[in-house]
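so my prof wants the structure for this chain in the tokens format not the other one, which i didnt know existed until like an hour ago. anyway here's the sequence
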Amino acid sequence: MTHALSLRALNEAVYAVFDAQNSHVGHLKRIGAVWKFKAVGYTAQGALVPGGGPLTHRHNAVFEHPDAADLAARLLVD
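here's what i got, hopefully its the right format
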């Protein structure tokens, strides 16, 4: 089954999050005992905008563990 979001491990405490079009939309970071979604966006010139992008309204959402299906179910809700 294909999820609308995918995860790519950067290290043991950080995953990059990509949407269905393979655009980078954030990071999932382990902070203490929880995982937090950190939204990102990009300017027209390609500069990173922390807390921005299409999932800015879900910035700092908390998760128990990295799971693409769980992220998609919770982050892609209107």
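also thought this was worth mentioning. The radius of gyration is 12 Å.
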